[in-house]
Write a structure and sequence with these properties.
The protein has 135 residues and is of the alpha+beta class. It has a single domain, classed as Nucleoside Triphosphate Pyrophosphohydrolase (Alpha-Beta Complex). Helix content is 25%, strand content 38%. It contains four helices and seven strands, in the order ββββαβαββαα. The strands form two sheets. Strands 4-1-6-5 form a four-stranded mixed sheet, sandwiched between helices. Strands 3-2-7 form a three-stranded antiparallel sheet. The longest helix is centred in the middle third of the chain and has 13 residues.
């Protein structure tokens, strides 16, 4: 089964970095999502997380925690996959930059702003950040 990793970068002010997935993407096109992508064959989850974050936004997670592993909710539409979602609270690399064609744009959102997005991939992203912040 395909596995993915993604990071919800969480700033001290409570804002979360999201990327607007490109229209050409097979799964969740034109939706706001965490930063990440596919785990390559033989690759450890954490290595994939660091690689994907560097490739997509130029940030290297330093402090992060796996918060949720869940199967794709719509496999008939997006393909079967197991998604691993991390929260990153410290990173290296300065300001996030949109470095790939995976996202049309990136931005920092409060949880209320995330909840108001009509095209957020899954509400679990908000719940994950809330759970992390409450711990």
């Amino acid at each position: 089964m395909l596995e993915t990793v993604s990071a919800l970068f969480l700033r001290a002010d409570g804002r979360v970095l999201l990327g607007l997935r490109a229209s050409w993407k097979r799964a969740w096109a034109d939706h706001w999502d965490a930063i990440g992508g596919r785990v390559e064959a033989g690759e450890e989850l954490e290595a994939a997380l660091i690689r994907e974050c560097r490739e997509e936004v130029g940030l290297t997670p330093l402090t992060y925690r796996l918060m949720l592993s869940a199967e794709e909710r719509f496999p008939e539409r997006n393909g079967a996959a197991l998604h691993h979602i991390y929260v990153a609270s410290a990173w290296d690399g300065g300001e996030a930059q949109n470095l790939s064609d995976e996202h049309v744009r990136i931005g920092w959102f409060s949880l209320d702003e995330m909840a108001a997005l009509p095209n957020l991939t899954v509400p679990d992203l908000i719940a994950v950040v809330r759970e992390y912040a409450a711990a």
